[in-house]
Amino acid sequence: QVQLVESGGGLVQAGGSLRLSCVVSGRTFSSLSMGWFRQAPGKEREFVAAIRWSGGSTVYDDSVKGRFFISNDNVKNTVYLQMNIVKPQDTGVYHCARSSGYITDRAMAQHRMYAYWGQGTQVTVSS
Fold first, then answer.
1. How confident is the model over 69-89, as a mean pLDDT?
2. Measuring CA to CA, how many Å separate 113 from each of 6, 66, 118?
């Protein structure tokens, strides 16, 4: 049974930092991809960042490149999203997701490529 549980969200001032965590239960293997997506009120879910479980590939949306960093800890079965220099437009519910198998780097930004999703954690950035 695959389960994803996010934590670490909260209220942060613009310019501040936050670290999100996603604990993954169930079998994992190096070719899996893990992604972070966010959804703001009234908007569609959008891609933030993704990483291959082996750590060999990372992909970022242009809006967060250079500010957010995705990483994973294979021992703790956890994926992290370090959010720095946050902006009000980063506000939303952040979901982590796991692919069911290998997907290409280009496909890692597509939410339909992910089979498992967490419930999400709210991030609110005040101006």
1. 96
2. 19, 24, 15
